[in-house]
Amino acid sequence: MELEYFLDRAEVEIIKIVEKAGYRIDENKAPCLESNDYVGFLNKKEKRIIICTSNAKRRENYTPLLNKNLDTFERTSLHIKKALRHEAVHVAQECNDGNLLELNPNLSMNPSKIKALNKSILISGEEEKERQAYILESKPKLVEKELKKYCL
After folding, report:
1. pLDDT at residue 67 above 70?
2. Which pTM was predicted?
């Protein structure tokens, strides 16, 4: 998978746990074509996470030929890592019988995520689940902890 090129150890560990929980990770599948804005999806029925690596690369103007531009690589990598973590939070929620995770109530969402949250709510219809995913997507170790707690 191309997305592995953009990941750190924390995300590789997240993938291992997600796969142990019975989920697949796919890349650049049909839902990614619906909009260039989409970077990740969880298909609950098929138990798979879809990461739209091509969309992330397009959004950040990343091309392998311009790989010397570390800034575009880092932005693309961050986009992909956050998408994977976000969808992994939804996996943890599914492992918790579709319920919200029991998180520290002091954790809060970055206000810059409001627009993205609202778009996600339109797709999923689940505001609190999306809010949790946006809160945790910047916290890889906490995502890993929640996956272990609910899925293993």
Report:
1. no
2. 0.94
Edge-to-edge strands of the sheet including 48-51? 24-27, 48-51, 40-43
**Per-residue pLDDT reduced to its tens digit, 80-113:** 999 999 999 999 999 999 999 999 999 999 889 9
CB 133 within 8 A of CB 77: no
Phi, psi of 84 (to 5 degrees): -65, -45
* DSSP structure string for the chain: -GGGGG--HHHHHHHHHHHHTT-EEEES-GGGGG-TT--EEEETTTTEEEE-HHHHHHHTT--GGGTT-HHHHHHHHHHHHHHHHHHHHHHHHHHTTTPPP---TT----GGGHHHHHHHHHHH--HHHHHHHHHHTT-HHHHHHHHHHHH-
Which candidate, 24, 84, 74, 22, places its Cα nearest to that of 53? Answer: 84
Per-residue pLDDT, 66: 58
Q: What percent of the chain has pLDDT over 90?
A: 86
Farthest-apart Cα atoms in the chain, separation: 45
Q: Which residues contact 124 (CB under 8 A, 6 or more apart)?
A: 130
C-alpha to C-alpha distance for 52 and 47, rounded to whole angstroms:
16
